[in-house]
Amino acid sequence: MKDLLSINNLDKDNIKALIVKAKHLKAKRRVRRDLKNKNVLLMFEKPSLRTKVSFEVAVKELSGNCYYLSKDDIGFGKREAIKDIALVLSRYVDCCIVRTFKQEDLIEFAHIATVPVVNALTNSEHPVQILSDLLTIYEITGDFSNFKVAFVGDGNNISNSLIQSAEILGFQLSIATPKGYEPKENPKQSANIKIYNNAKDAIKDADFIYTDVWASMGWEDERESRKKTFSDFQINSAILKSISKKYYIMHCLPAHRGEEITDAVIDSDNSIVIDQAENRLHMHKAILLKFLPKI
Fold first, then answer.
1. 3-state secondary structure string, the chain?
2. What are the phi and psi torsion angles at 173 (to 5°)?
3. In the chain, pLDDT over 90 holds for what percent of residues?
4. Is there a contact between 102 and 74 (Cβ–Cβ < 8 Å)?
5. Residue 102: which residues within 8 A CB-CB, separation 6 or more?
6. pLDDT tens profile 158-203
7. Average per-residue pLDDT in the chain?
8. Span 233-247, mean pLDDT?
9. What is the pTM for the complete model shown?
10. Do residues 133 and 283 make contact, with C-beta atoms less than 8 angstroms apart?
């Protein structure tokens, strides 16, 4: 296993080990020397705040060297062939963290690259985010599978990676999305995963209620039309009244406050959104430590 392109690259033991390692790194946060003399390249065709900074800090706190390329520097298949980019960069750096549009471009790049490649987001999958979220859930439950997550919103990369992780770990997952916006990742006849077209049924008995923007990067031109389509899928105080148990609110950020989630909910005592954001740093360290020593 050279690369982390998908949650499906990992098995149950891999995921558990990453979570435990990240939790340890968080508890013992300090400057380490694990990546001394290692060069890590961030290749981001999509803009980023949390992913960029958390990976940069992770590399620096592990004593590695970090470099950044923006969309104007890369241009997969536009400025030059993906094959040429992969072959050349493999001679320069020890690992490539890639944030791009098409999963197919990422797979092609990783297949040719001779150094580890980590998926920092594509249109269809977001494994590093979900691994960070699982760390956040584990901190609360102390468990890898005995909980229920309800994802309400677009069937996007977050929902696809959640489905993959639920299939592997076995936790209960319900996804609520309007008709026609279901995740592309179809559950493989998993009894623990259910897809709904209304939010109330999905969040019933949920321990964690997760949402994301209705129009992800690349679909901004649909934002206004999606506001109408997704209006019944907003996480607000009214819809949460139906839950009688303790629950936690999750969002991968950035949030469009007042659209998929209200201020009152995201800023409430039930919100663990900022914990999610912090845990990206610690999970990114765990990922780097797992993949880079193999070089």
1. CCCECCHHHCCHHHHHHHHHHHHHHHHCCCCCCCCCCCEEEEEECCCCCHHHHHHHHHHHHCCCEEEEECCCCCCECCCECHHHHHHHHHHHCCEEEEECCCHHHHHHHHHHCCCCEEEEECCCCCHHHHHHHHHHHHHHHCCCCCCEEEEECCCCHHHHHHHHHHHHHCCEEEEECCCCCCCCCCCCCCCCEEEECCHHHHHCCCCEEEECCCCCCCCHHHHHHHHHHCHHHCECHHHHCCCCCCCEEEECCCCCECCCECHHHHCCCCECHHHHHHHHHHHHHHHHHHHHHHC
2. -135, 125
3. 89
4. no
5. 76, 122, 123
6. 999 999 999 999 999 999 999 999 999 888 768 899 999 999 999 9
7. 95
8. 96
9. 0.96
10. no
Token pair for 283? 């999970």
**Structural domains in the chain, sorted by start:** 7-126+279-294 (3.40.50.1370), 128-276 (3.40.50.1370)
User: Residue 167: phi, psi to the nearest 5?
Assistant: -65, -35
Distance of CA 54 to the CA centre of its chain: 13
